[in-house]
Amino acid sequence: MWSKIVTRRVFFKVRFCSSLVPEEPEGPCVLTDVPGPCSRKLKKDLGKDQYTGEVTLFGNYQKSIGNYLVDADDNVLLDMFSQIATLPLGYNHPQLLKLFQDDKKLKTMINRPALGVFPGEDQPKRIHSLVSQIAPCLPKINLMMCGACANEQVFKNVFIAYQRKKRGQEGFTDEEKTTAVINQPPGAPNLCILSFCGGLHGRALGALASTHTKYIYKIDYPSLDWPIAYFPRYRYPLDENERENIEEDKKSLAHVEELFATYKKKETPVAGVIVEPIQGEGGNNEASALYFQELQKIIKRNNAYLVFNEIQTGGGSTGKFWCHEYFDLPVPPDAVTFSKKFAVAGYFHSDELTPDKPFRVFNTWMGDPGKVIILEAIIKVMREQDLLDNVLKVGARLKCGLVELEEEFCEIMDSVRGVGTFLAFNIANEELRDTVLHKLLRKGVVLGRCGESGLRLRPALIFQEHHADIFLDILRQVLKQCK
Amino acid sequence: MWSKIVTRRVFFKVRFCSSLVPEEPEGPCVLTDVPGPCSRKLKKDLGKDQYTGEVTLFGNYQKSIGNYLVDADDNVLLDMFSQIATLPLGYNHPQLLKLFQDDKKLKTMINRPALGVFPGEDQPKRIHSLVSQIAPCLPKINLMMCGACANEQVFKNVFIAYQRKKRGQEGFTDEEKTTAVINQPPGAPNLCILSFCGGLHGRALGALASTHTKYIYKIDYPSLDWPIAYFPRYRYPLDENERENIEEDKKSLAHVEELFATYKKKETPVAGVIVEPIQGEGGNNEASALYFQELQKIIKRNNAYLVFNEIQTGGGSTGKFWCHEYFDLPVPPDAVTFSKKFAVAGYFHSDELTPDKPFRVFNTWMGDPGKVIILEAIIKVMREQDLLDNVLKVGARLKCGLVELEEEFCEIMDSVRGVGTFLAFNIANEELRDTVLHKLLRKGVVLGRCGESGLRLRPALIFQEHHADIFLDILRQVLKQCK
Fold first, then answer.
1. At residue A250, what are phi and psi to the nearest 5 degrees?
2. Phi then psi for A36, rounded to 5 degrees?
3. Which of A152, A460, A45 is nearest to B145 (CA)?
4. Long-range contacts made by residues A168-171, C-beta under 8 angstroms, separation at least 24?
């Protein structure tokens, strides 16, 4: 269990430390209410032309720098949510700003081709470099534009492979061809993807059928009768709840087995399973390496495929490039999806999941070469500045600090969890959680909600120990006020 | 019927004309087979890391300019498919190349926020400018990343509005909240979107359930039991087949009426209808203004919503900014989706389709400010160079020329159709169509397939009369060879 990397319970004092991004401010500085008058005015303006129910505040992305989001009211906020976990290098990183001064890269970005049909001559080298640097033991990549699309498209690879295995050398029948076009079996067969309670895989209708966090994401939309398995809900601290948590693993795995059987009986077999290595928005819910090893065995026994959704966990914030590396699986998963910190989206997959015919998994753009250039730069900076190591170091410090705080404020804070800087904790109830979130914002710290009463940390990879100390200090102040 | 704009049957000779994009070559120049040895080698290389079944050739996007795609073998091709209809200004347009030399714009592009939650302070002005310049009589915009997502998300707006109308002032019931999370009615109600045979709305599972062109796009994937209506199949020339084509309209409209009734009976009412003003990949299939007026009436009578998918038709290639402007609808449609030539994707919608609560139609990025900057520049060039007028002028010339050719080669070419430069024609059969396509490519012209035996023209908006003449001349040569 990875939480065991954190053993020292020492609270580090704020000390000087040079920032990985030059010209970062020394700390947050809040001048107005947050959102302030400028943000409120801008929200009213934008509201004339689009729905703005979700807008928290307006950023000044000319002034924002490193880990600091400067908002429209000139408030300087320590951003530990980093645009819903999408900014690996924070704001205005010098390496990214200079990227498109290179005329060749600029042209690659501006002349965005339909990559599936007319890729640029630089694409093979670019893709090969990506695969050789970051592929999670899977040989093939397929680029998309956002996480939901990555998940939906990989479902198609899964369905293709599942049916191919069933069909053998036979081609499609005429009946299959005709019925596919009109959404009917056998061409559009009764197959399903198994997902988990608390999982979030995106908002397009297929991805949404495997998403089970908040009702508001799903209510009023027709869906698919796909199986939803129980996901372990651990108690914390882990070392004091080992027995109970093993029971949670067992309960979940038994449910998965049961659902495989139920849906087979329903003649809607499970072709694939999609799961986040740590559920993100659903509550930073972890499961043990052993759990995932057993899960993979069940999936293999049922001739189905395992897809890890690493859209939130991938790209370094767990201290490994891919979170599922922590699971020591005997063989790789069948596919791993990515987005967010990768600038572009897509997935890695096994040879078995490769389509056998053109235009089965396809769309107009098939990714975006301009975003791939950004991803290359991100990976380069990650290597040069050893950012995975930084995440582990800072993550340990953050977790230690949070554990100290949950001991000090045990009546309102508990369940510190996660790995690297991919951390979360619970507040006693939803209302108080929202109060804590708002008070943090007023003191210049941006966090995100997760689960029913959780707060999640999603800092950039350039978040350092001195930032952690500032955060822990402010969190202590807020918890004191809320006690 | 718009085809009537084209009355003069004159064939214009190639003559000197200055290009809208400086430094364009004088014409195509093919040195090798297409794809040539470099493209073939690159395909092999790329194939090690990703599936490449769809790759036609590799582009050299450093050298490509205006309407000319230079490929990896230095072949200079007159590109009339423009990356599946996505390039309004062709390759390396000087106005686009200089865009990100502006430091402010560069920072806006690099610091891509989660636009739904933390938009930039420049976003309201930017969005307002967009809406005021291009909105199709609809007050609200919602940005997405690709066409499939735009269509899927607008389905959600439709479902929300449909259920709200039914529910009235009542809030969600507890049963609805609980069942929504597990994909079951009443929270995930039985509702559907009606689409048309020959329609293409994207490859995510919801968009795919409303897509009905080729079986290969859909086979082996589970789908939704959604109604699929017959779409008119006109005979050409239109003025000689008026009676038959009116019958086609009637047949389609009667089927739509019937499906509304059938699915109401099935207790899966039709909440919305999605339709392309001209079916693109399905065959450049048109229907009359009267047809769409009647369709809108049926939809309104059934309390459902009309969504125009203008992903391919929008942005100028029909000679109007939105193709449905040709239909003189008494009231605007409920939503219009866009992507491709817009660089970013999304949709315009009525106030009635606006969500009532946050996070119902949402995702992490909600578009991309860098792409909006590109779209702004595209619109500016379109105005400055009067490109809609150019499209009408060039479209008329192209259509005249094609009509001349279909008369000359009536045994192998027919059904010239479309509006502006959004044109197509049929070749006698699929095999010969593919031969014509390949021979055109070998002579330096890139076209696209559509329907069963069609070829579609999708040039950029900067495609001019002298390009049209080059194309018509080469097409005549090829048809002569195939006769």
1. -60, -45
2. -85, 180
3. A152
4. none
Tokens 């096994």 -> residue: A350
pLDDT tens-digit series, residues B328-341: 999 999 999 999 99
Chain B touched by A280 (CB under 8 Å): no
Q: What is the pLDDT of residues B196-250, one digit of tens each?
A: 999 999 999 999 999 999 999 999 999 999 999 999 999 999 999 999 999 999 9
The answer to whether B82 and B459 are in contact (CB under 8 A) is yes
Nearest to A243 by CA among A256, A231, A252, A234: A234
- Cβ <8 Å between B222 and A189: yes
Contact status of A214 with chain B (Cβ, < 8 Å): yes
Q: What is the DSSP string of A467-483?
A: HHHHHHHHHHHHHHHH-
For A334-376, write each residue's pLDDT tens digit: 999 999 999 999 999 999 999 999 999 999 999 999 999 999 9
ipTM: 0.95
Inform me whether the C-beta atom of residue B82 falls under 8 Å from chain A C-beta atoms. no
- B332 near B350, Cβ under 8 Å? yes
Task: Name chain B contacts of A159, Cβ cutoff 8 Å.
Answer: 220-222
Q: Does B206 touch chain A if contact means CB atoms closer than 8 Å? A: yes
Q: Which positions ≥6 away from A77 have C-beta within 8 Å?
A: A28, A30, A34, A68, A69, A70, A71, A441, A444, A445, A446
Q: Nearest by CB to B96, from A51, A110, A162: name it.
A: A110
- Residue B8, min C-alpha distance to chain A (Å): 36
User: Taken in order B296, B300, B301, B302, is the CA torsion positive or negative?
Assistant: positive
Nearest to A100 among B100, B149, B163 (CB): B100
Instruction: Spell out which residues of chain B touch residue A140, defining contact as CB-CB under 8 Å.
Output: 49-51
